[in-house]
Design a protein that fits this description.
The protein has 262 residues and is an alpha/beta fold. It has helices at 15-23, 55-70, 112-117, 121-124, 131-137, 156-170, 213-218, 223-238, 245-256; strands at residues 5-6, 39-40, 43-49, 74-75, 78-81, 93-98, 108-110, 138-142, 176-177, 260-261. Bound molecules: zinc ion.
Length: 262
């Protein structure tokens, strides 16, 4: 674990802020009772795969992502930036931050298909994990997709939302679709960023690229995904079978198979 920078665990969660946040969704999903408990997931590892983002920017990104989860009662054992690929326990997540890559990438992706097969990110970065561990515990964000083409200046707000979105998938969060805008038949073929605006900027909407600067700052988790992630964390910790990456990957897939419509 050399070159590993531990960030402050930043226990920034204020109970009052948390409750306020959740109340803000009362008009969105009135029937949902939000799980207000505070729960601890695993370690988060940001892998700096590009010099497009400075280590200072990466630290800021990691801190902002951490507080997005803390704000809804999800804490992590630690958040660190490391070029090693550490041993991963059940809820540990690796997020690769990719800049240059010799093939087109999604804006972000969590899990096996995007890393093992589509682009062969696994061999490019010499990721030592097997297919199942990658499916269960590894994602990436594409730094070039959230930076200006001409100046290469990164958009940290947008990147924070994308990184939060991908890590949330790693904890069982699902896509949130605005059914007024999107075609329910084709939700699995809609490209990330192609659909229309929503009044409720959840981290888990698919149309992040249309969010304004202030919406990026006010984005949060929707109640359904707050509950789903906490349930996912509890289930993974509660049963010995989830010590096996294959079973974790399977559970995550099951969680993600039902998109949420608002
Ligand atoms: Zn997604």
């Amino acid at each position: 674990m050399n070159r590993r920078t531990f960030l402050q665990t930043g226990l920034t969660l204020a109970a009052s802020a948390f409750l306020e946040h959740c109340d803000g969704y009362s008009t969105l999903e009135q029937s949902i009772e939000i799980d207000h408990s505070i729960i601890t997931a695993g370690n988060i590892y940001f892998y700096p795969g590009t010099d497009m983002i400075t280590s200072q920017e990466l630290s800021t990104l990691a801190e902002r992502v951490q507080s997005n989860f803390n704000n809804v009662g999800i804490e992590f054992k630690s958040i660190s930036i490391t070029k090693d690929f550490p041993q991963l326990d059940r809820l540990d997540l690796v997020l690769l931050c990719i800049g240059y890559f010799p093939a087109p990438l999604e804006r972000g992706y969590f899990g096996g298909n995007g890393i093992n097969r589509d682009n062969n990110i696994k061999s490019f970065f010499k990721i030592p994990y097997d297919e199942f561990l990658i499916s269960a515990n590894v994602g990436y964000i594409n730094i070039t997709a959230t930076s200006s083409e001409t100046t290469r200046k990164i958009n940290l707000e947008k990147m924070t939302v994308v990184a939060t979105h991908e890590l949330a998938h790693g904890l069982g969060a699902r896509h949130l679709f605005n059914k007024e805008c999107e075609d329910e038949e084709n939700i699995f073929t809609i490209n990330f960023g192609e659909s229309c605006q929503t009044d409720h900027p959840s981290f888990m909407i698919t149309d992040i690229s249309t969010l304004t600067k202030s919406e990026l700052k006010t984005a949060s988790f929707d109640p359904t995904n707050i509950n789903a992630m906490k349930k996912f964390i509890r289930v993974i910790l509660s049963d010995e079978k989830y010590a096996y990456p294959q079973n974790r990957a399977h559970l995550r897939k099951r969680y993600l198979s039902e998109p949420i419509f608002i």
